[in-house]
Write a structure and sequence with these properties.
Radius of gyration of chain B: 21 Å
CATH architecture of one domain in chain B: Up-down Bundle
Order of helices and strands of chain B: HHHHHHH
Chains: A mainly alpha (108), B mainly alpha (168), C mainly alpha (634)
Mean pLDDT of chain B: 84
Helix content of chain B: over 70%
Shape of chain B: globular
Low-confidence stretches of chain B: none
CATH topology of one domain in chain B: Four Helix Bundle (Hemerythrin (Met), subunit A)
Distance between the termini of chain B: 61 Å
Largest interface: A-B, 72 and 89 residues
Oligomer: heterotrimer
Number of strands of chain B: 0
Structural class of chain C: mainly alpha
């Protein structure tokens, strides 16, 4: 049992791997889903993956900068989601759908 | 003990994240997102970043995700109304995500694993008191400006949310 | 001397230019006149305060540095003025005559709608001219050089509604440009040779170069090309007669007294370099004498009062260059000074006549003006006597000095120069007799309008007449009991070479030369009088049959036509060809083909913009992966 958990120490190495996995899952989410709300959540996942990595490095280097940065990322993310969801409401009102494919006007 | 906690929290985070993007019902997605965020919050605690743990729970799991739920509720989304991608796009997306993961992990290539595998040292910079001091001294101006950002986001949301601007 | 006061000399006209130029429409004519003249008067007073210490011999040449103008690496040009004997003389001429001409202009231009514009240009001109003569290095001089060229252009084309006048302005500007290129190249060559452009430093390093070496010949020749442009010498003289399109006071100030003498000033200033190059001096001598004779022959048959004076100016400038070519720098400056007075007077007198004749310039339609314009006639006569070289008027001394130098150099040169002087006498008295004697030949309308000019115009005439009489006294030669003050005065800025040769002639020879030239001039005056007053010969009317040599002279040797056919027309032909082939086909074709290529390519590629956001996201992620991959592999 102890032999198995040996590889799961909360070290910077493992945090890089964990954040990468979470980030990749976020990217995949953006690509495979068409529901704009889910895409938003996938974006939040990516942001959190980055946050986690920042905190990890902040502790690793014993530097407050990283954690302050995370704080601001959270602030910006909150603002972004507020406006984003409001736009989403407008889209739904105009097209009756929350699929990204309903937005096809951005072309030649 | 730390290793076990790390394993459990990581498993929860990855599993939750996967469920977020795989669940057919948007409401489930939201719930799994909350779970993921709690797991990440746990990681913050593990790293002794108490302030960010609190903020994460309050802002993300509390405020943002509730906002998501509200929207889903208002739009009355469920499994039946969920749009789906063609299968081959899903395959391509999965491959792209995998490739991205590989390339990201490629960054670890040159790392001296013996040195970095050791536990992260104990640090108290993440305590509310210490981070608060830094926020209100060194980062005071960005902190204040972020409030302006919130104000504009609020106004923007209200303006967009109105049924028809010309009515007023 | 005070740095501030010296700086004020060019600054006052500049200020006048700015005030009049910016307040163009808002200032009243009286105010414009007062500001314009006042600025120059202020400068003149300051110049006088500088001049007197020099005359006493108490002051020495001084370089006044104001600020670093250009500073790149080891290339440093300071904005500084050199106040010494030479520049003080020039400044006195410029501001003194400039002031008189400003006052005169206030009367002459009083009915013109461009009154304020005229005065602003005139003030700008005085500023540029002062910059030219005051600068202590070639760059400041060049700035002034270009400035006076610009003002000359603006003032020749002052009545810009007339296409012909505009063409004359352009011609002057382009001719000057050709000369300026030579000047610029000469300047660059000086810098590469001596590493500096400051006069005093260049002259002190001059002996680092071999005398008569190629480099010094090249420098002096290039500078001389600049001088031929600005001072209207062969082959670049044709702009000056056309420049008479400008208002007459402008012709007096710019195209007779000051700007056209810039070339002479520049050569006198660089006399150290010129004395090192015998070849260049020979060339200047030949060009100067050729111009003097050539322009004089054309002047013999011209019928436009200002054209005659213009060719006379070209001819007299040729004399000055001739003197410089002989190595007699101070003599050249002497003639420049006296010429400035009497030629300005002649032009202003001509302006007074034109004013009285309601704009008529053809002397065939004048005559008998002596009773109507007594003051103009008197002053005009004095100037004519001065330019003809009748003692004791100013022109006698300066011209005689040139002749003496010529004789000392080679007697046949004296012969040529004397022929030129006699021709000058002939055409000047022809002009005088045809204009003021005989019967009035104009229209009735003109006759009823004949009137003497107002005091504001005649007073400058009288002052200039006074100076046309006495200006020669600054250079009375030893043989006439004088001490040639000017030569001594200028000796600190002029190398001894050539300056002392004059003394080589014995007094007896000098007396004979003077007697010969004065006698010949008197004979010519008598012949002219006999011909035009006694026998009342009148110049041929337009279209009348005239003999071939006369026709050639009347048409100015067809030089304009020759330039037109050998330079302008081929150039035009080439430009046309370049336009139709190189521009339209090659360059346009090249540029347009790029445009068409981009158009085609984009119409093919634009289908990538499908509008599907998922597709965009996929491509974006692929791009990110690619970047990270490349980053990892490197």
């Amino acid at each position: 049992m102890g032999e198995f958990f040996k590889y799961f120490s909360p070290s910077i190495y493992n945090y890089v791997i964990l954040s990468s996995i979470l980030f990749a899952i976020g990217v995949m989410g953006v690509l495979i889903r068409r529901n704009i709300i889910i895409i938003f959540m996938a974006i939040e996942l990516m942001l959190n993956a980055v946050n986690l990595l920042l905190v990890g490095f902040s502790v690793h280097h014993d530097d407050t900068g990283g954690q302050v940065f995370v704080f601001f990322i959270m602030a910006v993310a909150a603002a972004e989601i507020t406006v984003g969801l409001a736009i989403l409401m407008m889209i739904y009102r105009n097209t009756g759908s929350v699929s990204v494919d309903s937005l096809k006007n951005l072309k030649w | 003990m730390d290793n076990i906690l790390f394993f459990i929290l990581s498993a929860l985070a990855i599993g939750g994240a996967l469920m977020v993007i795989l669940a057919r019902n948007p409401v489930y997605s939201v719930l799994f997102t909350i779970l993921t965020f709690f797991a990440i919050g746990g990681h913050f605690l593990l790293l002794n970043a108490q302030f960010l743990f609190i903020v994460n729970i309050i802002v993300y799991a509390g405020a943002i995700m509730v906002l998501f739920l509200y929207v889903i509720m208002m739009l009355n989304l469920n499994k039946q109304s969920e749009p789906t991608q063609p299968f081959f796009i899903k395959v391509i997306a999965a491959i792209s995500g995998g490739l991205l993961l590989i390339t990201l992990l490629g960054a670890l290539r040159g790392m001296d694993s013996d040195k970095v595998i050791s536990d992260i040292p104990y640090s108290d910079i993440g305590l509310v008191k210490n981070l608060g001091k830094v926020l209100f001294t060194e980062y005071l101006i960005p902190f204040e400006i972020s409030s302006v950002l919130f104000l504009s986001a609020m106004i923007g949301a209200v303006m967009l949310g109105k049924k028809n601007l010309k009515d007023h | 001397m005070s740095k501030f006061l010296v700086a004020l000399i060019p600054l006052l006209p500049l200020l006048g230019f700015l005030i009049i130029g910016l307040g163009n429409k808002k200032l009243s004519k009286t105010l414009v006149g007062f500001i314009g003249c006042g600025a120059i008067l202020g400068s003149f007073i300051i110049v006088l305060s500088l001049l007197f210490p020099f005359l006493n011999g108490t002051a020495k040449g001084e370089t006044l540095s104001y600020f670093d103008w250009i500073s790149v690496g080891n290339f440093k040009i300071s904005f500084s003025f050199l106040v010494d004997q030479l520049s003080v003389i020039m400044m006195t001429i410029i501001t003194g005559i400039g002031f008189l001409i400003h006052v005169y202009s206030a009367g002459y231009m009083s009915h013109d709608e461009g009154y304020a514009r005229y005065f602003s240009y005139l003030n700008l001109f005085v500023f540029s001219m002062l910059l030219l003569v005051m600068g202590s290095n070639y760059v400041v001089m060049f700035a002034g050089w270009e400035g006076v060229g610009l003002c000359s252009y603006l003032l020749i084309g002052f009545w810009f509604k007339n296409t012909e006048y505009n063409n004359a302005a352009k011609k002057a500007f382009i001719m000057n440009r050709i000369g300026d290129l030579g000047f610029l190249l000469g300047m660059l060559l000086i810098f590469t040779t001596f590493g500096t452009l400051d006069y005093l430093e260049v002259f002190s390093r001059a002996n680092s170069v071999q005398e008569n070496s190629t480099i010094i010949i090249a420098i002096t020749l290039l500078l001389f090309i600049g001088a031929t442009g600005k001072s209207a010498q062969i082959p670049l003289y044709t702009w000056l007669p056309d420049a008479m399109a400008g208002p007459t006071p402008v012709s007096a100030l710019i195209h007779a007294a000051t700007m056209v003498t810039a070339g002479i000033y520049m050569i006198v200033r660089s006399n150290v370099l010129y004395s090192m190059s015998e070849v260049t001096l020979e060339i200047i001598e030949i060009v100067g004498l050729a111009t003097a004779l050539f322009a004089a022959t054309i002047g013999l048959v011209q019928n436009d009062i200002k054209k005659v004076l213009a060719y006379s100016t070209v001819s007299q400038l040729g004399y000055m260059f001739f003197a410089l070519g002989l190595g007699a720098y101070s003599t050249g400056m002497f003639h420049l000074t006296t010429h400035a007075f009497f030629k300005a007077l002649l032009f202003l007198g001509a302006g007074s006549v034109i004013h009285a004749m309601s704009g008529e310039q053809d002397i065939r339609n004048m005559g008998g003006l002596v009773k109507k314009l007594p003051i103009t006639f008197g002053t005009f006569l004095i100037a004519t006597l001065a330019i003809s070289g009748i003692p004791p008027f100013a022109g006698f001394f300066s011209k005689d000095e040139i002749l003496a130098h010529a004789y000392e150099h080679a007697p046949f040169l004296w012969g040529f120069a004397l022929v030129g002087a006699l021709m000058t006498t002939f055409y000047m008295f022809r002009l005088l007799f045809l204009t003021f004697f005989g019967k009035f030949r104009g229209t009735e309308h003109q006759r009823s309008h004949l009137h003497e000019s107002p005091l504001v115009m005649t007073i400058p005439l009288m002052i200039l007449a006074l100076f046309s009489i006495i200006a020669g006294f600054i250079g009375i030669p030893e043989v006439l009991g004088g001490s040639n003050f000017l030569k001594k005065f200028l000796s600190p800025v002029i190398t001894s070479q050539g300056a002392e040769t004059y003394a080589a002639l014995s007094h007896a020879v000098e007396y004979r030369l003077m007697g010969a030239s004065v006698g010949a001039v008197l004979v010519v005056i008598f012949i002219t009088w006999f011909y035009y007053v006694q026998r009342e010969v009148r110049p041929a009317k337009e279209g009348e049959q005239i003999s071939t040599p006369h026709k050639v002279l009347y048409n100015k040797y067809y030089i304009d036509e020759i330039y037109n056919s050998i330079i302008v027309k081929p150039l035009k032909w080439f430009s046309d060809k370049f336009y139709s082939i190189l521009e339209l086909k090659v360059i346009d074709g090249f540029v347009n083909s790029w445009g068409k290529g981009v158009n085609l390519g984009s119409s093919a590629i634009r289908h990538v913009q499908s509008g599907s956001i998922s597709f965009y996201l996929l491509v974006m992620v692929a791009g990110i992966i690619l970047i990270l991959l490349i980053n990892n592999l490197i």
